[in-house]
Amino acid sequence: MENYYVYLILDPSEDYFISIDDIKIDKKPFYVGYGKNNRIEQHLLKREMNRKCFKSCKIKSILNDNKSPIFIKIRENLTFENANELEMKYINLLGRLDNNTGILTNHTDGGKGTKNKILSIETKSKISNSKTGIKHTEESKVKISKSHKGKKLSDKTKKKLSDSMKGEGNPFYGKKHNLDSFKTCKVTLQIDIETGKVISMFNSVTEAGTVKFPDAVNACF
User: Fold this and answer.
1) Position with higher pLDDT, 132 vs 4
2) Which of 34, 124, 136, 178 lies at a 20 to 30 A Cα distance from 41?
3) CB-count exposure of residue 183 (10 Å: 0-12, 13-18, 19+)
4) pLDDT tens-digit readout, 32-54
């Protein structure tokens, strides 16, 4: 349905002359968004104003000066896809403050996702804390497993993962196995591939992985 629109929020205190798709603007834009129905009006709701982001802080600053931000629809009667594309176009045109490319308070490049979104240390901490202690159900574990199947990691990503597990980054750094921990380890056998005889036994896959076996294979039981 063609009921979406793209809009700008302007600062009434700052003159800024620009023409966007033949629409002349004389006040400084600080946010580009898209939506439908009353989306454009929701920026003044309490829940939006309480958000700790550039846009909300800017709006509160304008209101504190006894002025009102200017909301202007620059394209209307759009499909969802068209609205996404135009939002990205205008954000790219005006640039973002958080990555030093322009004047907007947007935290992403627009569109459906959060591409190139820059998160503050506080936000990263909140996300991390919100996930602490969460246990996945068996169903969610299967979904996560399937989503990762067939994906290939770049050499750069592999190196990052490898480096993150070195030294203090290794969750087992500075720790030692005790009798209880050995109970949870998978016993790993070194088996001669020709005779089938057991050559060596290790307390875990990790321990076996530190040894090279040119003429044998590992089997976990």
Assistant:
1) 4
2) 124
3) exposed
4) 999 999 999 899 988 888 888 88
Domain that holds residue 52: 4-121
H/E run at residue 156: helix 155-164
C-alpha torsion sign, points 45, 50, 53, 57: positive
Using the 3D structure, point to which of 83, 105, 121 is the last residue of a domain: 121
* Strand ranges inside the chain, DSSP E: 4-20, 23-36, 70-78, 188-192, 198-202, 216-220
Residues whose CB falls within 8 Å of the CB of residue 142, separated by 6 or more in sequence, listed in order = none
Q: What are phi and psi of 123, to 5 degrees?
A: -65, -45
Are residues 109 and 41 part of one domain? yes
Q: To 10 degrees, the CA torsion angle through 136, 140, 142, 145? A: -80
φ/ψ of 147, rounded to 5, equals -65, -20
Q: Domain check: are 111 and 205 in the same one? A: no
Q: Which residues contact residue 191 at a Cβ distance below 8 angstroms, ignoring those fewer than 6 apart?
A: 197, 198, 199, 216, 217, 218, 219
Residue 186: helix, strand or coil by DSSP?
A: coil
